[in-house]
């Protein structure tokens, strides 16, 4: 299997922490609109897909949510608690090696490889906890000898990754074994990872009070200055004009994010 230059590129969006149902997610539409706006009328054909995994999270959290409703009698408190459990539950699941996290990674890997089997160049756009699953799957694929051959980008199931609002720079994720990117080996080409963050994004800084981030963390954590590393990792601070959690959801309309994605594909 190899990527075909004649096939239409595909942007695969991997969402992050969510409330509500998987069918309600619209991040693929946001990315398509953003890319089209940055192309400014230039003809470039591409498709956008969304990897939805919120249904897997919801099933895993159902027992805990039902228990909280029995304990908390106030309807308003019950609603707020359910929402909080939904968010916190997503984070806990992503940190673990349990069956739900493994299922999320496995299905993402299947979707990536299905596009690879069809020969489509694929670009990942991952948000929030979606960046954790995307990083895990790419690292896993790099351990398999048939994929990501350093001097043969046509053997790469993913041509590049763009992350927004990623918590991967936090110590919380370093402690779960996500402190290194897989070595690709000696060669000419580098796998490109562009990371966009707002300094006011509490998910990036890990500060629930919204204190601005003092420095970037993704590139300095994962870069290795050795010949066989094989990754190009770059952080890009963006100004979304929002604060606290609003900053965490404002990337979808940011021009810099759109420009970065277009630069990878075109």
Brief summary:
This protein has helices at 27-39, 54-71, 75-95, 99-117, 129-142, 171-174, 202-205, 218-222, 244-248, 255-265, and strands spanning 10-14, 47-51, 122-127, 160-164, 191-197, 231-237. With 266 residues, the chain is α/β, with parallel strands linked by helices.
So what's the overall shape?
globular
pLDDT < 50 runs, ≥5 residues: 58-90
Strand content: 5-15%
The residue-averaged pLDDT reads 83
Count of DSSP H/I helices: 10
Structural class: alpha/beta
End-to-end Cα distance: 22 Å
Using only C-alpha atoms, the radius of gyration works out to 19 Å
Strand order in space, largest sheet: 2-1-3-4-5-6
**Considering DSSP H and I runs of 4 or more, what fraction of the residues is helical?**
40-55%
The string of secondary-structure elements, in order, is EHEHHHEHEHEHHEHH
| Strand tally | 6
Main β sheet profile: 6 strands, parallel
Description of the molecule:
This protein has 266 residues and is of the alpha/beta class. 43% of the residues lie in helices and 13% in strands. The protein is built from ten helices and six strands; from the N terminus they run E-H-E-H-H-H-E-H-E-H-E-H-H-E-H-H. It has helices at 27-39, 54-71, 75-95, 99-117, 129-142, 171-174, 202-205, 218-222, 244-248, 255-265; strands at residues 10-14, 47-51, 122-127, 160-164, 191-197, 231-237. Strands 2-1-3-4-5-6 form a six-stranded parallel sheet, sandwiched between helices. Strand 4, helix 6 (171-174) and strand 5 (191-197) form a beta-alpha-beta unit. The longest helix is centred in the N-terminal third of the chain and has 21 residues, at 75-95. It starts with 9 loop residues before the first strand and ends with a helix. Mean pLDDT is 83; it is low at 58-90.
